[in-house]
Amino acid sequence: MRHGSRTVPALTVAACALALGGAAPAPVKPAGTDVTVSVVDIRAAKGSVRACLTPDPKAFPKCDGDDRAQELAVSADGKSAKLVFRNVRPGTYAISLLHDENDNGKIDTALGMMPKEGYGFSRDAKVSMGPPKFHKAAFEVGEKPVSQTIRVRYFL
């Protein structure tokens, strides 16, 4: 808060308000909640686990072109991993993930279409001739923290 040409600490403003019989300003609420993802069934402790969370069905599963999407990556150093998307606003979301074993930032395929690396989706949505539709992987985020468990699947 500015007062004249100098900054007045917020604590001082709150103390003055209380002394004058007013209420202290309400604490600032975070913009959203956490979505914690437990990733299980990782086949090799190498590379990284990359995930994206999007509220946009058109951007799913790659999160391309979605300014609201969040992307995370952690080392794949065991059979499981944990990712936490922070400050997620209420709404409907879906998560896609990749076990990027060679850490090249993309899913490697055989014959141009069969994934050679592990993948997974929120709500453990199944793959059938391509990634699941958004609505199959979608889940709701409200005011309380959300947890998802995603099992990594390997085609080859």
Q: Any idea of the CATH class of the largest domain?
A: Mainly Beta
Query: What is the 3D shape?
Result: globular
- Could you please say which CATH topology of the largest domain applies here? Immunoglobulin-like
Q: Count every helix, treating DSSP H or I runs of 4 or more residues as helices.
A: 2
Number of strands: 12
What is the terminal separation in angstroms? Answer: 59 Å
Regions with pLDDT < 50 over 5+ consecutive residues?
1-8, 10-19
Following the backbone from N to C, one meets helices and strands in this order, namely EEHEEEEEEEEHEE
Structural class per helix/strand content?
Answer: mainly beta
Major beta-sheet overview: 5 strands, antiparallel
Q: What's the number of structural domains?
A: 2
Report on the architecture of this protein.
The protein is mostly beta strands and about 160 residues long. It has 2 domains: about 30 residues, no CATH class; about 120 residues, Immunoglobulin-like, CATH 2.60.40. The protein is about 10% helix and about 40% strand. The chain has 2 helices and 12 strands; from the N terminus they run E-E-H-E-E-E-E-E-E-E-E-H-E-E. Strands 4, 5, 7, 10 and 11 form a 5-stranded antiparallel beta sheet that branches. A 3-stranded mixed beta sheet has the order 6-3-12, with no helix packed on it. The protein starts with a strand and ends in a 5-residue tail after the last strand. The N terminus is likely disordered. It comes from Paraurantiacibacter namhicola. It holds the Pfam family DUF2141.
